[in-house]
Amino acid sequence: MKIKIVSLMLALLLVGTSIFAGGAQDQGQDDSMMEKVSNNVEVLHWWTSGGEAAALNVLKEDLEKKGISWTDSPVAGGGGEGAMTVLKSRAVAGNPPVAVQMLGFDIIDWAELGLLANLNDVAEKENWDAVIPDALKGFSKYNGVWVAAPVNIHSTNWVWANKKMLDDLGISIPETWDEFVMALEKVKASGKIALAHGGQAWQDATVFDSIVISTGGPEFYKKTMIDLDDAALRSDMMVEAFKRMAVLRSFVDDNFSGRDWNLASSMVIEGQAAFQIMGDWAKGEFKNAGQVPGEDFVAFRFPETQGTVTFNADQFVMFNVDESQQAAQKELASSIVAPGFQIAFNLVKGSVPARTDISDAEFDIVGKKGMKDLAEASANGTLFGSMAHGHGAPASVKNALYDVVTSHFNGMYTSEEAAAELADAIKSAQM
Ligand code: GAL
Fold first, then answer.
1. Ligand 1 neighbourhood includes 154 CB (under 6 angstroms)
2. Residue 193 is inside which H or E element, if any?
3. In whole angstroms, what is the distance from residue 100 CA to residue 73 CA?
4. Helices (DSSP H) in 222-362: which residue ranges?
5. Does 345 sit in the ligand 1 pocket, CB within 6 Å?
6. Is 312 in the pocket of ligand 1 (CB under 6 A)?
7. Residue 36: how many CA atoms within 13 Å on its side-chain side?
8. What is the strand order of the sheet 314-318 is part of?
């Protein structure tokens, strides 16, 4: 399946390349008359929520100070599926943007097509090899060539809660699955919404990241979501994981279907709902609404996933562009990795820096915990790529999982059927 997608893309690419080559020839005539250097970068991304836009502004403003203007190409849709579809058509037309926000295995897929720029001179000058953690480097570099600039590290196994609601209902932070279910029941009984959730495949899958660890532990997550072990995928433990998904399903409100993740965050912010299970980009929404961690909201690791971190890192992948655009492209890459920027940006985004040499001094309690958890998980062998966010397996497998998890969440499979369907779907996605 993967080979099929890659060869299809290659075929499309050939069409695109010939269009591009034609464009380059025409431009060659222009160039002979006038050598132009572009101080503009077009960036394709999916950061369209309030918190995300605020974080992106930090980057835009940083570049503006350096005399580089920004052409914004936003494609709404958390997790980036929509953005990746737009990118494919742009690449086929031979017109990729200067830089594209991307996750994990998608970067490797694009690098395999030979469409990405070589950032090695910037990376060497700024010693990226020494400061970017190996878990990220595996995606930022392809065959020894830096093709992307990592901007952050997010993690998916978090729960966000409205502090006042917990206090009013006498709920303390749940440490175990059973305590979490009891807390959800208490909220539901009070007439409020227990779990703010948006029924979109990537959000269901984000919850599933946590559920798999919480049900079977870190080894089970690794076996199923990273190693894609068939027996583990169709095991009783996986049936149990789906049963827990069904339990969570009973705590969402009737209007959950299709709801954007940031609207679910707003439900917690505004006191309509108690909890949201979401990656730490949710913190960007709470902060953008002026809320303070520990006072207005609390964040904790999904019960029974403490000690494990499922991460995803946003990287800005640099495409091969015309020579006139390369200086600005390299400045963009350099700005993204710069230590001061990594602090300023990640304070707003909710993520933690993509470098190992940054102090946590300026971060709030959630950021400090995020950095500590990450370092500990990395040292203990419990840091894993998020399946839901493209760091567990390539897109073909991820999408197969999305389909099964979402179908089960919407009642189309029993938990027994879902485990079998998941194993089958993942197997055929790898053929
Ligand atoms: C993730 C991305 C985050 C956040 C989220 C929701 O895939 O890594 O930065 O933007 O989607 O849009």
1. yes
2. strand 193-195
3. 9
4. 230-233, 236-249, 261-269, 282-288, 323-337, 339-349
5. no
6. yes
7. 12
8. 69-74, 40-45, 99-103, 314-318, 148-150
Residue type, 149: A
What's the confidence (pLDDT) of residue 5? Answer: 47
At 36 the pLDDT is 84
What is Dmax (Cα atoms) for the chain?
Answer: 74
Mutate to test the pocket of ligand 1, among 281, 315, 317 (most ligand atoms within 8 A of CB): 281
Domains of the chain: 6-153+313-365 (3.40.190.10), 155-311+374-429 (3.40.190.10)
Ligand 1 pocket, 281 CB below 6 A?
yes
Atom 6 in ligand 1: which residue has the minimum CA distance? Answer: 78
The tokens 């990287």 sit on which residue?
A: 315
For the whole model, what pTM was predicted? Answer: 0.93
Residue ranges in the chain whose pLDDT is less than 50: 1-8, 10-12, 14-33
Q: How far apart are CA 362 and CA 377, in angstroms?
A: 22
What is the structure's pLDDT at 400? 98
Measured distance CA(409)–CA(33) in Å, rounded: 61
Q: Which long-range contacts (CB under 8 A, 24 or more apart) does 215-219 make?
A: 215/177, 215/240, 215/241, 215/244, 216/240, 216/241, 218/307, 218/308, 218/382, 218/384
Residue 155 alpha carbon to ligand 1 centre in Å: 10
User: Tokens 């040292």 label which residue?
Assistant: 379
Closest residue by Cα to atom 8, ligand 1, is 314
CB atoms inside a 10 Å sphere around CB 107? 24
244 lines ligand 1 (CB under 6 A): no
